[in-house]
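From the shared-data thread, chain only:
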Amino acid sequence: MTVHPSLQTSIDAWTHSIDAISELVNPLVENEWNRRTECPGWSVRDVVSHVIGIECEMLGDPRPIHTLPRDLFHVTNELSRYMEVQVDVRRCHTAPEMTSELEYTVIRRSRQLRNEKRSPDTVVRVPGGIEMSLEAALARRAFDVWVHEQDLRRALNKPGNLDSPGALIARDTLLSALPKVVAKDAGAAPHSAVVFDVHGPLEFMRTVRVDADGKGTIDGSVSLGPTVTLTLDWETYLRLACGRVRPEAVGERLKVEGDQQLAEAILDHFAVTP
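Structure, as tokens:
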């Protein structure tokens, strides 16, 4: 246990997901590492490389000195270029090399987290040069690793853990972005309300309300006569919010009631991960 229990939820969720990733990829044969995932341009190997690389940076390891090829269509900005270095440098690694490095990285990172003595509000620098509190950084790692666990599960046709500790952190992380999506990005009118009714392994209902000044808030109370109601399953919500699919690709798993124009605007801005 860490000195600060407020960090333990994120550490436990990270541990659960990183162990699940190890279990998923350890039995894979070489060609299975090349399976495509829903992350643009990334294979199973690339997703695992990303996870390894970011955890190594959290450990304080130096970043690889590596020049990216110029023909990577999915590298569109500085953040994606930053993230791609840890991925591209491992594209020539074999399956045993990948699983060995993952195992070693998990051992080192787990030891670091077990011995964490810093206060939750300690400001730390995370990959990409962003500064945030240690508590936020650990929640972000738990979120990222769980989302990539799900990327791997879909690519390998091994569904599961949609209600795991990491799923709960992912739900709260994604829901926190909804007020901005509805009120600012989609431009919902003042005094409007949008309901998100999510079913499946993780069930929840949330209402985003836009006040007279155009500011959005979110709560779990029921709205009478909402402007829009979006009903969908949790996995579809995840895939949309993380930019893995476009709304038109999952239309049969999505029910829209109310203002269609506003619903389309919300769905157009639904992807909130970088």
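The two ends are 31 Å apart (CA to CA).
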